[in-house]
């Protein structure tokens, strides 16, 4: 069974700050994710890429975090994007009608090529 | 929520509930508990929420019983997807997700308690039996 607690790992590729998430994102831990993303946005990162490839599932609490982060990034002149939506996670974006609301790239490599 | 998450994981392994069904019920339960906290207890304070999970050989049923003000989450307006270029307004998304993930979504008021019931049919997967992983709920 895969690990299911939320883990947040940051790395850098060129100018892009990559935030790789894994596990479940729900109401109990979405606040942790919000804090990390707000911290990155307020520290003047200009390119933030959230990799959802290892996320098991996410709830509306996580969608709200991603929406708020997207809007705050816009206000700060930063580009905020998502990548690697697969399986259940992609289905949840589709159920929520959110695939056109975010900048979504099929893979991390594709996103880095377009953002960097 | 972590305790409930553990319980669902353990039951999933015990009954061979498919991983996708189990995740969908985890998500639906998280949404319902969030809705109860936000709408049934708007003034905060100390409240009671009882969660009961009934599992049969082909059905998972989650009962959330709270002492808050009457609020039928099923009546929440459907989420409005904004046209391109406009921002999505938060709200209604959780209920919309629940409606899509479960087979049945019931609500009743009994003895000054609110009963919200979510149920979903499943076909047991023998390979999942005994495979619960309840160590990493957030």
Written description of the protein model:
The complex is a heterodimer of chains A (116) and B (138). Chain A is 40% helix and 31% strand. Chain A is of the alpha/beta class and 116 residues long. In chain A, helix 1 packs parallel to helix 2 (60-75). Chain B has 138 residues and is of the alpha+beta class. Chain B has one domain (2-128): Heat Shock Protein 90 (2-Layer Sandwich), CATH 3.30.565.10. Helix content of chain B is 33%, strand content 22%. Chain B contains three helices and four strands, in the order H-H-E-E-H-E-E. Chain B has helices at residues 2-15, 19-40, 93-101, and strands at 49-55, 59-66, 104-110, 113-121. The longest helix of chain B is centred in the first third of the chain and has 22 residues, at 19-40.
Describe what is shown at a glance.
The complex is a heterodimer of chains A (116) and B (138). Chain A has helices spanning 30-42, 60-75, 87-95, 108-115; strands spanning 7-13, 16-25, 47-58, 79-83, 104-105.
- List SSEs of chain A in N-to-C order: EEHEHEHEH
CATH class of chain A: Alpha Beta
Question: In this structure, how is the largest beta sheet of chain B organized?
Answer: 4 strands, antiparallel
CATH architecture of chain A: 2-Layer Sandwich
Give the tally of structural domains of chain B: 1
How big a fraction of the residues of chain B is strand?
15-25%
Oligomer description: heterodimer
- What's the pLDDT, averaged over the residues of chain A? 93
Task: Write out the CATH superfamily name of chain A.
Answer: STAS domain
Task: List the total number of helices of chain B.
Answer: 3
What class would the helix/strand composition of chain A place it in? alpha/beta
Task: Lay out the secondary structure.
The complex is a heterodimer of chains A (116) and B (138).
Chain A: E1 7-13, E2 16-25, H1 30-42, E3 47-58, H2 60-75, E4 79-83, H3 87-95, E5 104-105, H4 108-115
Parallel strand pairs in A: 2-3, 3-4, 4-5
Antiparallel strand pairs in A: 1-2
Chain B: H1 2-15, H2 19-40, E1 49-55, E2 59-66, H3 93-101, E3 104-110, E4 113-121
Antiparallel strand pairs in B: 1-2, 2-4, 3-4
């Amino acid at each position: 069974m895969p690990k299911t607690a939320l883990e947040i790992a940051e790395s850098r590729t060129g100018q892009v700050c990559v935030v790789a998430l894994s596990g479940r994102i729900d109401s109990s831990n979405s606040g942790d994710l919000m804090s990390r993303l707000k911290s990155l946005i307020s520290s003047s990162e200009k390119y933030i890429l959230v990799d959802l490839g290892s996320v098991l599932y996410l709830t509306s609490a996580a969608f709200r975090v991603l929406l708020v982060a997207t809007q705050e990034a816009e206000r700060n002149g930063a580009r905020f994007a998502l990548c690697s939506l697969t399986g259940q996670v992609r289905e949840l974006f589709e159920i929520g009608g959110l695939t056109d609301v975010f900048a979504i790239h099929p893979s991390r490599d594709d996103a880095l090529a377009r953002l960097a | 929520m972590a305790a409930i998450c553990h319980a669902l994981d353990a039951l999933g392994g015990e009954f061979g509930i498919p991983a996708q069904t189990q995740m969908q019920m985890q998500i639906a339960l998280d949404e319902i508990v969030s809705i109860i906290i936000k709408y049934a207890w708007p003034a905060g304070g100390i409240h009671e929420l009882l969660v009961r999970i009934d599992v049969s050989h082909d059905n998972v049923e989650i009962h959330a019983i709270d002492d808050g003000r009457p609020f039928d989450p099923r009546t929440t307006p459907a989420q409005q997807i904004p046209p391109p270029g406009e921002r999505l307004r938060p709200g209604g998304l959780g209920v919309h997700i629940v409606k899509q993930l479960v087979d049945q979504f019931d609500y009743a008021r009994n003895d000054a308690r609110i009963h919200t019931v979510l149920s979903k049919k499943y076909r047991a997967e023998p390979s999942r039996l005994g495979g619960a992983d309840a160590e990493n709920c957030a």
